[in-house]
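## Example record

The block below lists the input lines for one assembly entry, exactly as stored, with component labels intact.
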Amino acid sequence: MGAILNDIWGNSINAVKLLTTRLGKLELSTPLLVASGTFDLENFEFFDPACLGAFVSKTITREPKKGNPPPRLYETEAGLINSIGLQNPGLDKFIHEKLPVYRDKLSMPLIVSFSGSTISEFCQMLETLEASAGIAGYEVNVSCPNVENEGIAFGTDPDIVFELTRRLQEITDKELCIKLSPNVTDIATIAAAAEAGGASSLALINSLWGMAIDYRTGKSKIKKGIGGYTGCGVKPVALALTYKVAQAVRIPILAMGGIYNWQDALEFIWAGASAISLGTANFINPLAAPELIMGLGEYLLSTKKSINDLKGKVEI
Amino acid sequence: MNSPQYRQRAIQLREELSDEYFILWIWDEALGAAGKPGQFYEIRALSSLANLQTFHAIPKLFKPISIYDNQGGRIGFMIKKVGTGTNALSRLRAGDTLELIGPCGTGFPVFRGRRILLISGGIGYPPLWYLQKELINHNQIYWMHGGGGQADVFPCDEIWTEDGSIGRKGRVCDNLEETITKHEVDTVYSCGPQGLLRTVCEITNKLDIEHYCSLEAYMACGIGVCHGCAVPIGHPEDWTFKRVCKEGPVFNAKEIRWELF
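Predicted structure tokens for the full assembly:
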């Protein structure tokens, strides 16, 4: 694997150039990121980290969060339902235990995902994070479907999204990416509100609501009933929402939702994405990331097009 | 090799045990040297992702399967057909390719000079087989195994079946207290269905006996990243969700918060 990657990275300056992309304030060496909560340092045992343009960490909250009761997972015919409930060690532990390791180990920009239950909590968290070295940007999670009072409660109201973004961009000069939920009536309005508030990029989609029931017993497969649905089944939805948002805003889009391979990635780039994330695919194929970058690099080389040349050029 | 690795390995041998149980053997010296009793691999039939007619019915997630045997690079997985994932594995033959992530998790502590009771139910048998090989030269071991019927019975010291077709009739934990007393047991290891493990934990906790219990969970990543396999572990007043794939699958019985499952 390393040898093949070197062909793209080492010997072909063109592929390197063609794969670069811009996510708001960040210049990324590749358009490939990883979806928050689906990927961590353990995954780098499987492949060369150079294929990632940036690393997105698992969402943290101010206080530690226990998470949801099990069972938390169920694999459906076309994708995965999860109900983790933002289990995380909290902001302090993240800064003192996790962040130093990321600083030490990561060779690409770190984007920290965080969530809160009030605007002032989001702001306090960002102020604390700003005091720490080693962070290139933030993904503001206003869209987790698995917690009641955080995340999604924010992401569904354009006025709140606008106000939250406006307050946060006053605190940081770093990349500020707002992660949007698909579980809304009109995602374009929310996206426009985030842009107006000063977001420098948007990430979409977070997981859809999903449910699975044992047809024999009538029992829910997930303890909390409804969970977040991700994976190949959500791809058409994610693609449509990416296209819709790309029509509504000028800031870059980090697209995700059912992307498994380079062909999927290209579809999202055509629809308007500047960068893409692998989520559920990391569980399905441990080598999804390097395979995607190899495929995408070879495609771009063969067509002599860059990400920027293709972005948003879908023919309708 | 401290962290789980991803490998594709040919199946060297497939052994049939019964209609429901089979063993897949692979060969990898480095993985073999890294594995410990109680650890597991996330495994998958490579063909799961091929263009089969039943593609939609085949799960794409890896399945956690404990190490049944591990000696000099020869690694065995004893598998029971229970769902779509293990059914896909059951179609594999010698020469087919197995995908593996592992060795995963934290296994059983291995002691010397103990009076040990192993207690397993059904497909809880395999990790204890590997464990007893590591324990047998230095400890006194008594192994009780139970299952639904004779198809679920494997070599051990005391057999129980629920239908009474062989061995003693009932659940393997039915006279656990007596056995513990009779054999002056000071350490218990267990693996099996949740109901059985819960009962065994209640008994060993009551008798205040050291007990290491291997749990099963639905998993996605297998390497500690997704937190999908978490179970409540700790003291009644101060517990957290621990990952079966990372801190587990083996937990101290005193810390498993069954009331929260």
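The first helix of chain A runs from residue 2 to 11. The first strand of chain A starts at residue 21 and ends at 23.
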